[in-house]
Amino acid sequence: MPARKPSSLINRHETAAERAEREERDAALRPNRTLPQNPPASLRGRRTAEAVWRRLIRMYGELDAEIVTRLDMGLIEDFCILAEQVAELDAMRKASFSQFELLDIVRKKQLEDGKFESAVKTGMKMEESFQTTLKLDGRVDRKRDLMFKMRQSLYLTPRARAGTAPKGKAPEEEIDPMDALLGKVNEFVNEKVE
Fold first, then answer.
1. Which helix (H) or strand (E) holds 152?
2. Can you give the residue ranges of every domain in the chain?
3. Are the C-beta atoms of residues 151 and 157 closer than 8 Å to each other?
4. Are 151 and 59 a contacting pair, CB within 8 Å?
5. Which residues of the chain have pLDDT under 50?
């Protein structure tokens, strides 16, 4: 059986009794404290993780629906750390591939100069760099897959949100100066009539 959606994401018709039962069940699992706006201590010093935390909390704050609570804090922390690890692995892969490209240029130059023995040694270094790049690709693929699963749990993918689109907070309406003036005139006239 699939996990239940938060009541704030339900948009089908429910009877008053069903709605009250669901809200009561949700309230029993809702902690008193909300998620902190600032990253928790476990993310301090991790620039990418802190930035992801702030972005997520800001994004969740824009919604009327309460999708995540303090109970989800550990999951969000893990997601932020995972995002930082993926960024680090991407940087390592880029450096490894740059080394591979540089060694390829050196090997071609060695072949042109007739330094075949040196070219073979450079080719072996290229193979090591290539293997490192492949290993990093495998690791980052697994981490991205885990991130995708976590995104689904946090309602960050279109499929996870399908049929559950919460309404955004309504922007504060600015009062038109002309409407304000007409409202005062209306009040004045109504007072004179009475």
1. helix 116-153
2. 35-167
3. yes
4. no
5. 1
